């Protein structure tokens, strides 16, 4: 292995290939053979890795996950080799190898050979040394969670990119865990192996090394596993709306029991292209819970980023997920429609009435309501603007009119308006009834010609119907007879021949000041007395 380090990777690969094609070409192979000998090999980051596998049968490669994803840097070529081209060869080429390509590289037969004595797989561990990245995985901001059970083996996986790196295992705040070769051992391919973990290994651990005077540290958090996820939520309400080109930020917050640690991941439309940057941190611990945060951010959001965003929270067998939908708009917009019809009706005296419009807009526009061309807040304190609705408290007749909603997104120069008409109906009121001293009747001379008047106010304009309830004369000297309410009233009209003859019934509309210039109905009829000496009339608005 030492000679390979001195000669360089390319030379070592060529020498290995010559050895394979030379000494073994004339004999049966015991199993697949690799061009690099030994159990491990060291090369420098930025160099090209050449690794050849030769065998008696077709074979495949098993590689580190980071290498399998390198579709541009990685190439594997297959060929026939050996004497008479009866052997199978494949050459793996990895251009510009990086530190995270460190790991096991294996060549394995696709089918099991008939002889059980033959090997089916050859493996080598390759270190890609990078002095700027001594640890294969760095957890500087938030520690990696390691579940442990007391009395069982636990591995602190601070793998390195070179076996020559000296690593120290420390426990917060001041302890150092020293490998003794028995209970605690160091393996550059795995990390620190604790054979029989105890409560002393529970807590925040750190693997530290110093390279070229610079201290590198990667953190791990061990704990006895509990899996209580109390809550998970995305702080931004769903759906999330934003304009194209803006920045999308989603914050997933998870609350857990004290001894629970979680893994938080996201699934989203641009996940395969890694459109988002994701940062995670642990918040302040309360007396009875932990809080974890995962923040997803996408700069310069585009239409392809719209869709469902899901935050997955996992702790052992426990699992929770929470999602939100993201809508991306090309530009600001406003649409407004009547919720029902353009003309609305209500009744005076109602405790409250809501005028509401159907509005779709983004971003949220400024809202102003007008009544008959003037801002409603200047009209009355009874008007309350709530979202896209106008609430009228204690509805009165003067609330009738034309109401206009003005919507404006000033920064985008987008404006819309819509008008609706409100009719306020007023229950009919009879003024004579309000000022009269009924049940005392009015006295008229027998045989005289009389005109009875009824004045009514109401919206819409009411119609009037006159009724007559006869009083049966008892020829007493009393001024008038008593009329029982049990007597059946008669409807009067000009053609009636019952009792007093009705000469005419007329109705006219007058504008009366003091009632906001609303029309009043004034109805009268003229009667010609007949033989009845006492009569009782009343009128009802319809």
From TrEMBL:
Transmembrane segments: none annotated. Pfam families: I-set, Ig_3, Ig_VEGFR-1-like_5th, VEGFR-1-like_Ig-like, VEGFR1-3_N_Ig-like. One of its GO terms (biological process) is vascular endothelial growth factor receptor signaling pathway. InterPro entries: Ig-like_dom, Ig-like_dom_sf, Ig-like_fold, Ig_I-set, Ig_sub, Ig_sub2, PDGFRL, VEGFR1-3_5th. GO terms for molecular function: ATP binding; vascular endothelial growth factor receptor activity. Residues 32-125, 231-327, 428-467 form the Ig-like domain. The keyword Electron transport does not apply. Keywords: Signal. Residues 1-26 form the signal peptide. One of its GO terms (cellular component) is plasma membrane. PROSITE patterns: IG_LIKE (PS50835). The keyword Signal applies. Forms a complex composed of PDGFRL, TNK2 and GRB2. This is Platelet-derived growth factor receptor-like protein. It comes from Panthera leo. The gene is FLT1.
């Amino acid at each position: 292995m030492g000679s390979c380090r001195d000669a360089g990777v390319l030379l070592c690969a060529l020498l290995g290939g010559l050895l394979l094609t030379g000494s073994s070409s004339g004999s049966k192979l015991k199993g697949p053979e690799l061009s690099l000998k030994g159990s491990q090999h060291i090369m420098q980051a930025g160099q090209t890795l050449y690794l050849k596998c030769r065998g008696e049968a077709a074979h495949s490669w098993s590689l580190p996950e980071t290498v399998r994803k390198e579709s541009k840097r990685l190439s594997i070529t297959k060929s026939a080799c050996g004497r008479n081209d009866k052997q199978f060869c494949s050459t793996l080429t990895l251009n510009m190898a990086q530190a995270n390509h460190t790991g096991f590289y294996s060549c394995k037969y696709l089918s099991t050979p008939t002889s059980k004595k033959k090997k089916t797989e050859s493996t080598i561990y390759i270190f890609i040394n990078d002095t700027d990245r001594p640890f294969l995985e760095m957890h500087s901001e938030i520690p990696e969670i390691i579940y442990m059970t007391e009395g069982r083996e636990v591995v602190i996986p601070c793998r390195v990119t070179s076996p020559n790196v000296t690593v120290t295992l420390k426990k917060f705040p001041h302890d150092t865990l020293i490998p003794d070769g028995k209970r605690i051992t160091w393996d550059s391919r795995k990390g620190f192996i604790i054979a029989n973990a105890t409560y002393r290994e529970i807590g925040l651990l750190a693997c530290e090394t110093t390279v070229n005077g610079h201290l590198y540290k990667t953190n791990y958090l061990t704990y006895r596993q509990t899996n209580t996820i109390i809550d998970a939520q995305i702080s931004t309400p769903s759906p999330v709306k934003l304009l194209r080109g803006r920045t999308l930020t989603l914050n997933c917050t998870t609350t857990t029991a004290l001894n629970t640690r979680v893994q938080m991941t996201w699934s989203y439309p641009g996940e395969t292209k890694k459109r988002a940057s994701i940062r995670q941190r642990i918040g302040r611990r309360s007396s009875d819970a932990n809080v974890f945060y995962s923040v997803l951010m996408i700069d310069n959001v585009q239409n392809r980023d719209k869709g469902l965003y899901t935050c997955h929270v996992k702790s052992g067998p426990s699992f929770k997920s929470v999602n939100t939908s993201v809508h991306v708009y090309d530009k600001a917009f406003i649409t407004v429609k009547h919720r029902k019809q353009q003309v609305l009706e209500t009744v005076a005296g109602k405790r409250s009435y809501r005028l509401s419009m159907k509005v779709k807009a983004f971003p949220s526009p400024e809202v102003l309501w007008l009544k008959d061309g003037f801002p409603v807040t200047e009209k009355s304190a009874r008007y309350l603007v709530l979202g896209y609705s106008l609430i009228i408290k204690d509805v009165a007749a003067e609330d009738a009119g034309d109401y206009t909603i003005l919507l404006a997104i000033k920064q985008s120069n987008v404006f819309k308006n819509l008008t609706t008409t409100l009719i306020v109906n007023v229950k009919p009121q009879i003024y004579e009834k309000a000022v009269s001293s009924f049940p005392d009747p009015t006295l008229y001379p027998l045989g005289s010609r009389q005109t009875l008047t009824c004045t009514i106010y109401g919206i819409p304009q009411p119609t009037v119907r006159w009724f007559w309830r006869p009083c049966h004369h008892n020829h007493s000297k009393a001024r008038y007879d008593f009329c029982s309410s049990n007597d059946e009233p008669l409807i009067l009209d000009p053609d009636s021949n019952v009792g007093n003859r009705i000469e005419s019934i007329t109705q006219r509309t007058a504008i009366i000041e003091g009632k906001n210039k609303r029309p009043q109905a004034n109805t009268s009829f003229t009667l010609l007395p007949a033989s009845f000496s006492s009569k009782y009339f009343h009128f009802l608005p319809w």
